[in-house]
Amino acid sequence: MPLKVFNLRFSRAAVSAAVLAATVTGCANNRQPYDYTAFKQSRPASILVIPPLNNSPDVAATYSMLSQVTLPLAEAGYYVFPVSLVDETFRQNGLVNPAEMNEVKLQKLREIFGADAALYISIKHYGTTYVVLSSESRVTADATLVDLRTEQVLWKGSATASSAEGRNSGGGLVGLLVQAVVSQIVESSTNRSHPIAGVASYRLLAAGMPNGMLYGPRSPKYKTDGNTQP
Predict the structure, then answer these.
(1) Nearest of 80, 89, 76, 52 to residue 197 by alpha carbon
(2) Rounded CA gap, 194 and 65, in Å?
(3) Is 155 helix (H, G, I), strand (E, B) or coil?
(4) Which residue in 12, 85, 199, 222 has a CA-CA distance of 20 to 30 Å to 164?
């Protein structure tokens, strides 16, 4: 009998979750097109990535994310300052943590690096969690692109990736419990969050995504994307 009661409660929770997911999906599909006016007026060619701010409890988040942001930006057609060189330059100047690095004035960044724009990233979630019937590694991050010449915000975006995407939930209640435990053990022991951060980085910074980054001058698709031409 207790099992039946639990199943009833679980079913109601599942229905509530499904309704919430449908609502969120509907909102995502109805997003307004991003206003790229400032981005198209600026048309930056080089991007300086500031080491991400980490708002998660996992200390590895900043450099896990930082190590994977160059690829999508380079593929989008931008010159990206080598992230290890940027980090070392900050450290040589007495700035040893991302919070301090993110406080450097835009004019100073322009003076030191000569970049057209700076990309600021904030990690909202990074790590593996376990909650009764599910276990997942999830990474969520926001990004803001700022013109270092005019100090104007050019673009903002957000992305999430999870190891639970597309996971088969079959096998009943016992199957869900076993799957959750196994997933937590495997993902925690193998640092599953790192490759998930790569997926999140791509979704966040790859050009051609809905409301995403525009193509840079090194891409054959330069000036072919966005809502309107300047």
Answers:
(1) 52
(2) 8
(3) strand
(4) 12
User: Which residue has 């909650």 as its token pair?
Assistant: 131
Q: Which band of pLDDT confidence, cut at 50, 70 and 90, is reported for residue 11?
A: very low
Q: Do 54 and 126 contact (CB within 8 A), yes or no?
A: yes
Residue 64 in tokens: 């896990």
Cβ–Cβ under 8 Å, residues 196 and 161: yes
How far CA 78 is from CA of 53, 84, 87, 145, 174, in Å, comes to 22, 17, 19, 13, 49
Q: Give the tokens for residue 220.
A: 């054959």
Residues 6+ apart with CB under 8 A from 71: 201, 202
Please say whether the beta carbons of 100 and 109 come within 8 A.
no
Classify residue 26 as exposed, middle or buried by CB count within 10 Å of its CB (0-12, 13-18, 19+): exposed
Highest mean pLDDT: which of 18-27, 134-143, 162-171?
134-143
Residue type, 91: R
d(CA 152, CA 62): 25
pLDDT of 185 reads: 53
